[in-house]
Structures are given as structure tokens and as C-alpha cells.
Amino acid sequence: MLGDAKGYRFEPTTLTIKRGDAVRWTVVSGPPHNVTFWSDSIPGGASTQLQANMPQTMAPLSSPLESNIGATYTVSFAGVPAGAYKYYCTPHLAVGMKAQITVQ
Question: What is the CA angle 38-41-43, rounded to 5?
Fold first, then answer.
């Protein structure tokens, strides 16, 4: 999770993983950042399991805000259906900080 002269972004903006993998995000610059999944942009039936796999959420499908450089947040994709999982950073959505994970 980055915020610098190039803008606010996730790197990479697209990622393909296998069902059961976990993804870890790290704050590199420009905090605070978080990971929030669009409930209408994830596979049907995924919401309940994805929410259960997200520790310490601040809202449904929304990780806590991470304010420290080097802070990490990890989500397991165990038990979720295959498909596209679109997400964004709540504080930086207006400036286009969004990305997608494809679960195979």
C-alpha cells in the first residue's frame, strides 16, 4: 500500500491466487491505508466466509486502518468461492486506490 508522488495505489493492482492462499498487505508509504472489499463486486456467497477470514474488521469486509509504515494485514482466502474480489482503500478511494484479487 503506497502513497507518494506517483499517487495512492496497491502494488500489484491485480493478483491471481489459489483458493486457500492468504494475501498480506504492507503499508509502505502514505498511511493510513486499509483493505475494503466491495460486497457487490465479489462472488456470490463469498461475503460470510471472507468476513470470517478477516481479523479485526472495522466494518463488514473492511480491515482496520493501518497508520504505521511497515504495518501488515493478512486475509486468508480459504473456503471462499473462485472469482474476482475487487477492493479499495477507504481513505483513498476518491483518488483511485483500488485493486483486484482473482481466486482460482
Answer: 120
